[in-house]
Amino acid sequence: MKKSFVISLLMIFAASMLLSACGSSSEKTITFWTPLTGDDGAYMDEIVKEYNATNPDIKVKHVITSDMYTKLSTVLNSGKGVPDLAIIHADRVPGFAKQGVLEPIESAIKGQPEIKEANYLPQAWSTGNIDGTQYTVPLDIHSNVMYYNKDLLKKYNAESILDDNVVTIDEMLSLKGKLASDEYVVNDALLGWVILAQVQDLGGDIQENGKPAVNTPVMKQAFENVKKIADAGLMTPFGEDGYLMFQSGKVLFSTDGTWSSTAHAKVDGLNFGVTNVYSPTADKFTNRASSHLFTMFKNDKRSDEKEAGIGAFLEFVREHSLEWAKAGQIVASKQVNESPEYKQFMQSFFTSNEQETKSLYIYTYEYYPYVAEAVDTYCADIVRGNVDLDETLQTMQKFVEDKIAESSSKQATK
Amino acid sequence: MPDRKRQAHYFSKRRNYKAMNKKLFAPFFFVGPHLILFLIFILIPTIYGIYASFTQWNLMNDPVWIGLANYKTILFDSSSTFHTQFFNGLKNTLLFVVISVPLLIVIPLLVAVALEHKKVKLKGVIQSIIYIPGLISISAAALIWLLIFNKQLGITGNVFHSQVAWAATQPYAWIIIFVITVWGGVGGNMIIYRASIAGVSKELYEAAEIDGAGSVRRFFSITLPSINFPLIYTFVMTTAGAFNVFGQPLMMTDGGPRQSTHVLMMYIRQLAFGQGESIAGMASAMAVLLGLVILVISALQYYVMNRNTR
């Protein structure tokens, strides 16, 4: 009995060692976590594979981590198994930086003179800069954009709408009564992002002196403008899959993401192009965007050698991320997005001139994620007139304020 | 020889002691693995979860003790978003429990009894067909069901000419949640009922038949009383499971329309693992409250049913 007790103890010990070994990484590999599931992950795998084929001193091991942010909080809390390198979204940077869990990227890129702001899309670079410290190097900008069905535009003689690259809400409303009964002007894909773009178009913002500003005249105006389209019966019906309806050729415009172009391209007979998200005014247009950013979480065990290895990998990505364009994303590296090969990709439209590049807007407000959550939760019901606008804006404002109060007050005073 | 006697006595005592030892430790080797897993994956996290509910915590920094503040906000601060979320979530969860639990008890029971009939053929095949949906991941199943209920592409729109966007209109949003729940949940309970019905002595049925009892009478007088323990078990477990509903509304309706199918577990998850900084303390408090509700209701069910069946 004693023997078996000892044996079982040993087995438990061995099992726990094995399990904990999964988390640790060797000195000769850079553990690289990304939240890139699906096709995106496969494209990133390809980039990592190409890099490892150059026989670098330290190879990169790409670990696709679904639910990455939850896992990150676990490993950061325990301090064990922290990845050497990770990709995070732009709106996470201020929060992580405030919590003090990010390592300035400078230590990794100091040996790489070409990794600097001038070589990347400016807003993608600056979104990783908090109070003068650079925490990230950008991989891409992925944005809300508007696809259009070329055949339908031709059918309704509406191609002139696209002349100035700004599709205004009035131009869309002018199509009222002209469409067949099962066809629509625009769908409601990524509606929350569309609303947040309208806020910029109207000259507003989601914060005022660091306080969330959701219940504002500008936000109200943004909702009312978009609601006009729905009220006129031009938006795909509530609860229906507007994305699929665009693919089946029943919708003129679809406001989804840059990354959808690859899926649209696979649809037989869908003749489509891409332009900017609609705007309330002809003077300005905004495409609400986010960015995938390379960053290092604080980890005492990461050696200088490894950090240099990370720098080398980031430089490789800067030069060779054309592969990433295949995922439909707007590559942040200027060397890539200004190359002739990049022009074959549809999303090159958004870096084709300065005005376009500027239209890619990344919110950097510390509590943006809460504001976005509030907008996403309530936008569909507001635009469809299911709820009272003023009342709901108040609810949304309170929603964001309550979350901010819970998340930070006591943590910050620690 | 007293010495030898003492020796013999000593040895027999030692043997006894050894045997006793064996008896003492043997059970622990059988329950040990489960005990360890239970400790690591259930007991310790539960205790930590309860502790977290008394703190303000973003999962990253150390939790800050704030006593009952989370509970106060959730239960009594009617202007708070968390109060509104908790009670809306609880209301929707209760609605789900009240409707889905009877369905998940009665339908499997009827199926199990029907399969007992002598004239039913291919019992194994039918049983498998009913059981398999329970093995399919809820997200994969939801995608298929959403296509079935899709107004443009689905069966409801094209064959039955329904003009409703099911996921966005009440009461249809609830209906599709119940459809997928019943579809996926009938099999598990049915297997339990079938196994327990198979254990009921055939002689009882034969005797009842000779006495002229019809099939309905046989069901209520023999089958039901004979399987009361499996019934209590499934009733309690199905209820506890229904309180933890998450996947179906998340995938089918995403809580809509107007958060009318937004269940408590969805709010809890959003708070702890949603966008932005985690609000894990508040989420834990909601989870503890939900746990208490489940505990009380399960205990009540067990008490009431056990008393009635004795």
Write the layout of secondary structure elements.
The complex is a heterodimer of chains A (about 425) and B (about 300).
Chain A: H1 2-23, E1 29-34, H2 39-52, E2 59-64, H3 68-78, E3 85-89, H4 93-99, E4 102-103, H5 106-109, H6 122-126, E5 129-130, E6 133-134, E7 136-143, E8 146-149, H7 150-155, H8 169-173, E9 184-186, H9 191-201, E10 207-208, E11 211-212, H10 217-231, H11 242-247, E12 251-254, H12 261-265, E13 272-275, E14 287-297, H13 304-320, H14 322-325, E15 330-331, H15 334-337, H16 354-359, E16 360-362, H17 368-383, H18 389-412
Chain B: H1 2-52, E1 55-56, E2 64-65, H2 69-76, H3 81-116, H4 123-131, H5 138-148, H6 155-158, H7 172-198, H8 202-210, H9 215-226, H10 228-243, H11 247-252, H12 264-273, H13 280-309
Antiparallel strand pairs in B: 1-2
Question: Largest sheet of chain A, described in full?
Answer: 8 strands, mixed
Structural class label of chain B: mainly alpha
> What class do helices, strands and sheet pairing of chain A give?
alpha/beta
How much helix, percentage-wise, in residues of chain B?
A: over 70%
The number of strands of chain A is 16
Mean pLDDT across every amino acid position of chain B: 88
State the strand order across the main sheet of chain B: 1-2
- Tally of helical runs of chain A: 18
Poorly predicted ranges of chain A: 18-25, 409-414
Shape of chain A: globular
3D shape of chain B: flat
E-strand count of chain B: 2
Radius of gyration of chain B: 26 Å
Could you give the distance between the termini of chain B?
62 Å
Overall pLDDT score of chain A: 89
* Quaternary structure: heterodimer
N to C succession of SSEs of chain B: HEEHHHHHHHHHHHH
Largest sheet of chain B: 2 strands, antiparallel
Pick out the low-confidence regions of chain B. Answer: none
